[in-house]
Amino acid sequence: MGVNGASPCASCKLLRRRCAKDCIFAPYFPSDDPHKFAIVHKVFGASNVSKMLQELPVHQRADAVSSLVYEANARMRDPVYGCVGAISFLQNQVSQLQMQLAVAQAEIFCIQMQQEPSNISNTTQSSFESSDDKSFFFQNNHLSHNNHQYLDFPSSSDHHVIQDSFKRDSFFGHDMVS
Fold first, then answer.
1. What residue stretches are annotated with the LOB domain (predicted)?
2. How far is CA 138 from CA 18, 123, 130, 133, 134, in A?
3. Theoretical Cys-Cys bridge with 65: which of 28, 90, 115, 122, CB 3.0 to 4.6 Å?
4. Which residue has the higher pLDDT, 62 or 153?
5. Is 175 helix (H, G, I), strand (E, B) or coil?
6. pLDDT band at 61 (very low <50, low <70, confident <90, very high)
7. Cβ proximity of 177 and 166 under 8 Å
8. Cβ distance 38 to 10 under 8 Å?
């Protein structure tokens, strides 16, 4: 019988065997959740799971079972890569979102810099009205020379330039950013 003595655990029920008092599966695979053991058994095998659990200290077994269930579910969805495939997919999403964020920030910066020359020309015009020609020439030449480097940003249609700098290799040797 299982831990509570009422019914065998999910593993013993699935394997059609008598559930002993010291059944290693009983604490982690209760009879009310048979799918949990069925999927772990299908991917890893009952014998392998039993060996893994016996090698672990009791306080780590629950976490191990949780990891086995997660990996078994991932293997059912993606038999080749399992949870590594899910991690790779999420890393790809993060890379794409970082790229989109960088493009948006560059566009914002470009717009801000395009608006700034109009503020500079207003400032220099008022300086021109209040001072002589030499100071206006110095201020206007100084400001336009320093800000010219910020005005040549690629437009949003040129996002492939930024995209190339964000490409990363995945574990499997192909680009993460598509």
1. 7-108
2. 95, 13, 14, 9, 6
3. 28
4. 62
5. strand
6. very high
7. yes
8. yes
Name which of 5-19, 81-95, 135-149 the model is least confident about: 135-149
- Closest Cα partner for 87 from 99, 63, 70, 101? 70
Dihedral sign computed on CA atoms, order 167, 170, 173, 178? negative
Tokens of 24: 């290693």
> Is the Cβ–Cβ distance between 151 and 114 less than 8 Å?
yes
Here the tokens at position 92 are: 């790809």
Report in angstroms the alpha-carbon separations of 121 from 108, 113, 167: 21, 13, 40
Give 87's Cβ-side CA count (13 Å radius).
10
Give the pLDDT confidence of 118-169 residue by residue, as tens digits: 665 555 555 445 545 444 444 444 444 444 444 444 444 444 444 443 444 4
